[in-house]
Write a structure and sequence with these properties.
With about 150 residues, the protein is α+β, with helices and mostly antiparallel strands. It has two domains: about 1-100, no CATH class; about 100-153, no CATH class. Helices cover about 20% and strands about 40% of the residues. It contains four helices and eight strands. It has helices spanning about 5-10, 30-40, 125-130, 145-150; strands spanning about 15-20, 45-50, 65-75, 75-85, 90-95, 105-110, 115-120, 140. The strands form two sheets. The protein has a five-stranded antiparallel beta sheet with strand order 4-3-2-1-5. Strands 7-6-8 form a three-stranded antiparallel beta sheet. A hairpin with a 2-residue loop joins strand 6 and strand 7. The longest helix is centred in the N-terminal third of the chain and has 10 residues, at about 30-40. It is globular. The relative contact order is 0.22. Keywords: Plasmid.
Length: about 150
């Protein structure tokens, strides 16, 4: 079901996989430049953060962040790709997947808002990930237990 950027901000839970599209058809692979341009406007990512708008004296719209992927080699992340969308974005969005009940979200506070760092299968896996990756102040939330933190009220 197609949604607006505002409805993704309002309804989607952190950790949800979101697709976005400008509505144009994907060009054939042989058109390399056109394909790269299309891929820049269409894609998917995991919802990791929401930021309310209008802080301070300079008003701006609320935004949400999709994590599109990590790039590197031999277990070392060189580049982490995140894309920030305004709630006024005109692209079409779709929630493809949400974390299953019982999954553990590793979160931390960023400007008083939760930011998703990792989705694990359970609490033990989340604690292990948090300790291995050096996030001592991160907290763990189990999906289905405290949805008020990961969903905008």
């Amino acid at each position: 079901m197609t949604k607006t950027a505002q409805s993704i901000y309002d309804e989607a839970v952190l950790g949800a996989t979101i697709c976005y599209s400008d509505g144009t058809p994907r060009p054939p692979d042989r058109f390399k430049r056109k394909l790269r341009a299309w891929e820049a406007r269409n894609g998917r990512g995991r919802l990791t953060r929401r930021s309310p708008g209008s802080r301070g004296s300079r008003p701006y719209p609320a935004t949400f962040t999709l994590h599109e992927g990590n790039y590197g080699s031999e277990g070392v992340i060189i580049l982490s790709v995140n894309r920030i969308f305004s709630v006024a974005d005109e692209r079409a969005f779709e929630i493809v997947d949400v974390p299953s009940p019982g999954a553990a979200l590793v979160l931390h506070r960023w400007s008083d808002e939760p930011e998703l760092l990792h989705v694990a299968a359970d609490r033990a896996a989340a604690e292990s990930w948090r300790d291995r990756h050096g996030y001592p102040n991160a907290y763990i939330e189990i999906v289905g237990e405290a949805e008020s933190v990961t969903k905008v009220a």
